[in-house]
């Protein structure tokens, strides 16, 4: 019997949308990456070793574990660790091209960056997830040590091994991703709700665009700028 393609398509769609977590917008007319904030942009005096840091992005949240001395361990999709062992190249700030290729190849690295490079101008929340893990918060030093042990190349998957899985394992001992679960449930609700015609059409069109399938000439050309507006 033929397997239902919907779950697989939804999974692929989620993988594609995960790109929006890290891709950094380029200024108009610029051909390079947007420079990160200068050192000292963030006040790190309120951060403690082992803290869980959150940076809200357009659709998702990026997570990291503070290691002290302006250093953050976090997971990012990256193709470079799978093709070279040059630590100096790998340690450079991950570009959009490296990130996209990492998502496609399902490879990533747990890396240590400055707070500025980690947050990239976004606002930072500290230990905001602790309220969801009552009596499960590990010691701060234990959380930091777990993060340090995992530094290096690793497999990547939005559904099973992303930046949120990494930090929840380090600080709470259980690798989970609430934002992925919530997004999956939203997609399922849209698919099940036959009355949401507009929402179903948008999800279908987003799947076509994100999965790389050539759209039909009958597709409304207005959809592409609309989708980009939603993503931004």
From TrEMBL:
GO molecular function, a single term: phosphatidylcholine-retinol O-acyltransferase activity
GO BP, sorted A to Z: retinol metabolic process; visual perception; vitamin A metabolic process
Catalytic reactions of this protein: all-trans-retinol--[retinol-binding protein] + a 1,2-diacyl-sn-glycero-3-phosphocholine = apo--[retinol-binding protein] + an all-trans-retinyl ester + a 2-acyl-sn-glycero-3-phosphocholine; 1,2-didodecanoyl-sn-glycero-3-phosphocholine + all-trans-retinol--[retinol-binding protein] = 2-dodecanoyl-sn-glycero-3-phosphocholine + all-trans-retinyl dodecanoate + apo--[retinol-binding protein]; 1,2-dihexadecanoyl-sn-glycero-3-phosphocholine + all-trans-retinol = all-trans-retinyl hexadecanoate + 2-hexadecanoyl-sn-glycero-3-phosphocholine; 1,2-dioctanoyl-sn-glycero-3-phosphocholine + all-trans-retinol--[retinol-binding protein] = 2-octanoyl-sn-glycero-3-phosphocholine + all-trans-retinyl octanoate + apo--[retinol-binding protein]
Role played: Transfers the acyl group from the sn-1 position of phosphatidylcholine to all-trans retinol, producing all-trans retinyl esters. Retinyl esters are storage forms of vitamin A. LRAT plays a critical role in vision. It provides the all-trans retinyl ester substrates for the isomerohydrolase which processes the esters into 11-cis-retinol in the retinal pigment epithelium; due to a membrane-associated alcohol dehydrogenase, 11 cis-retinol is oxidized and converted into 11-cis-retinaldehyde which is the chromophore for rhodopsin and the cone photopigments.
Membrane topology term: Single-pass membrane protein
This protein's record includes keyword Lipid metabolism: yes
Keywords assigned by UniProt, alphabetized: Acyltransferase, Cytoplasm, Endoplasmic reticulum, Endosome, Lipid metabolism, Membrane, Sensory transduction, Signal, Transferase, Transmembrane, Transmembrane helix, Vision
Pathway: Cofactor metabolism; retinol metabolism
Residues in the signal sequence: 1-28
Membrane-crossing residue ranges in chain numbering: 197-230
Name assigned to this protein: Lecithin retinol acyltransferase
Homology family: Belongs to the H-rev107 family.
Superkingdom to which the source organism belongs: Eukaryota
Residues annotated as domain LRAT: 52-179
Catalytic residues (positions): 163 (acyl-thioester intermediate)
Compartments reported by the entry: Cytoplasm, Perinuclear region; Endoplasmic reticulum membrane; Late endosome; Rough endoplasmic reticulum
Cited Gene3D superfamilies: endopeptidase domain like (from Nostoc punctiforme)
A Pfam family it matches: LRAT
Lineage: Eukaryota, Metazoa, Chordata, Craniata, Vertebrata
Cellular component GO terms held in the UniProt record: endoplasmic reticulum membrane; late endosome; perinuclear region of cytoplasm; rough endoplasmic reticulum
PROSITE patterns: LRAT
Principal place of residence: cytoplasm
Keyword Nucleotide-binding: no
EC number: 2.3.1.135
């Amino acid at each position: 019997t033929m397997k239902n393609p919907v779950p697989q398509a939804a999974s692929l769609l989620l993988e594609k949308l995960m790109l929006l977590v890290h891709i950094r917008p380029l200024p108009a007319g610029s051909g390079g990456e947007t420079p990160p904030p200068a050192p000292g942009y963030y006040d790190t005096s309120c951060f403690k070793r082992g803290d869980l840091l959150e940076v809200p992005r357009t659709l998702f949240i990026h997570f990291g574990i503070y290691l002290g001395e302006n250093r953050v361990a976090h997971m990012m999709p990256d193709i470079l660790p799978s093709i070279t062992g040059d630590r100096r190249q790998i340690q450079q700030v991950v570009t959009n091209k490296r990130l996209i290729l990492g998502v496609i190849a399902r490879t990533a690295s747990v890396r240590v960056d400055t707070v500025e490079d980690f947050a990239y101008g976004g606002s930072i929340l500290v230990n905001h997830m602790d309220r969801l893990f009552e009596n499960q918060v590990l010691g701060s030093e234990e959380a930091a040590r777990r993060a340090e042990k995992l530094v290096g190349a690793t497999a990547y998957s939005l559904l099973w091994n992303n930046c949120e899985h990494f930090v929840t394992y380090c600080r709470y001992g259980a690798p989970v991703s609430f934002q992925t679960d919530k997004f999956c449930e939203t997609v399922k609700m849209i698919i099940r709700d036959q009355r949401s015609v507009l929402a179903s059409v948008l999800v279908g069109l987003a799947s076509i665009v994100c999965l790389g399938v050539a759209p039909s000439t009958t597709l409304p050309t207005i959809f592409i700028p609309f989708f980009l507006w939603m993503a931004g």
